Amino acid sequence: MSQLTWRELSAGGAGAVRVLALEGPGVRPAVERLTGGRLPPAGSFGLVTLRGAEGAWLDEAVVFVRTPEEVELQVHGSPAVVACLLDALGQPPLRRMGGSLEARAEERLARAPSEAAARVLLDQVEGALRRAFEDLLARSEPERVAGARALAARGRLAQALFVPRRVVLAGPVNAGKSTLFNLLVGRERVVVDAEAGTTRDAVAESVQLGAYAVELLDTAGRRALGASCGAEGEVERAGQRLAAGLVRTADLVLELVPPGAAVPAPRPDCVVLASRTDEGPPPPGLPGLSVHADPRAARATVERVFHAGLGLAEQPWQSGEAVPFEPDSCAELARASGAELVSAVRGWLAAR
């Protein structure tokens, strides 16, 4: 089997969800071995059960087949789960991408998802981060630690430029999710119809919200389905299960509430928006939007709540600024001190 490469799209370390991108000519058959041959077609999401050697259960995951040679797995955040998964895929072992600071930045530059991300990475290709690390080594211990923490904070903020955040449109049927999705995509990407349940699958597109590239998902609307709903109802029910899984792994959920619908209780990583406000006033305290009556204002509202919901700066970079672009180095800069910090910085500078 051809060797695969992997990189982490989430922040690294323990967390609720880890997102791993697997790349290489043999990626699809490698992942299919863990799912019993079940993978959605390219450009699609699916819920899968991952099993290792002799059918041992590993995890339940959301899988996104980006292309025949690129697959993303969203798994639970336990480091042990991730280690077992990578071990199960390691025939031969997977490897992280290596090289110097500048080489690694240049490798990422080739697939930068936005202009802002490309400019930040180009600064690192030209040596901005190397100069900042060399400056850290020349400082006193207190200044070195303060500088490392400042670099870590800057790197964490910039991760949303390098790794597109996943934004899921959710809500009941006929909430206007697909209409808003088409507006943000800039074309009629999905069918919009007054009949409830038109969207039965998850549809993903890359869009730009301000300076940030975003992976936007339109999902099946929620509604009660009876036991006698037939084959069509089973397809819709599967779409609702997939939508629920994607909501759990989203960086931000935009919950649309149409006129007359109940306002859901607040929850983390979710912004509630009143939709279709041209048909009735929004509930008190909710941002409102109407794609049909004022599409420009609707887009502006989404961009505003996106920035606020994820704590993102509207202008996230300054020309020539040193930015740690890898989650692992950000974590080390935020944690280490003394000889450990000096050793880490020297290691990054010496990498070739």
Which features would summarize this protein structure in a list?
Rossmann fold; single chain; 352 residues; Gyrase A, domain 2; 19% strand; 5-stranded mixed beta sheet; 3 domains; alpha/beta; globular; 5-stranded antiparallel beta sheet
Notes on the protein architecture:
- This protein is an alpha/beta fold.
- It has three domains: 5-89, Gyrase A, domain 2, CATH 3.30.1360; 101-162 and 322-350, no CATH class; 165-310, P-loop containing nucleotide triphosphate hydrolases (Rossmann fold), CATH 3.40.50.300.
- The chain has eleven helices and ten strands.
- It has helices at 27-35, 79-89, 101-109, 115-125, 128-137, 141-162, 177-185, 230-249, 295-310, 327-335, 338-350; strands at residues 5-8, 17-23, 44-51, 57-67, 70-76, 165-170, 203-209, 212-218, 252-257, 270-274.
- The strands form two sheets. A five-stranded antiparallel β-sheet has the order 1-2-5-4-3, with helices on both faces. Strands 7-8-6-9-10 form a five-stranded mixed β-sheet, sandwiched between helices.
- β3 (44-51) and β4 (57-67) form a beta hairpin.
- α6 (141-162) runs antiparallel to α10 (327-335).
- The two termini are 27 Å apart.
- The model has no long low-confidence stretch (mean pLDDT 85).
In the CATH hierarchy, the third-tier topology of the largest domain is known as Rossmann fold
User: Can you count the beta strands?
Assistant: 10
Report on the biggest sheet. Answer: 5 strands, antiparallel
> Whole-number radius of gyration?
22 Å
CATH class of the largest domain: Alpha Beta
Strand line-up across the major sheet: 1-2-5-4-3
| DSSP strand content | 15-25%
Helicity level: 25-40%
Overall structural domain count: 3
Mean pLDDT: 85
Question: Could you name the CATH homologous superfamily of the largest domain?
Answer: P-loop containing nucleotide triphosphate hydrolases
- Total of DSSP H or I helical runs spanning 4+ residues: 11
pLDDT below 50 for ≥5 consecutive residues: which ranges? none
- In terms of quaternary structure, the protein is single chain
**What's the SSE pattern?**
EEHEEEHHHHHEHEEHEEHHH
Q: In whole angstroms, how far apart are the ends?
A: 27 Å
- Strand-pairing-aware structural class: alpha/beta
CATH architecture assignment of the largest domain: 3-Layer(aba) Sandwich
How does the overall form come out from the CA principal axes?
A: globular
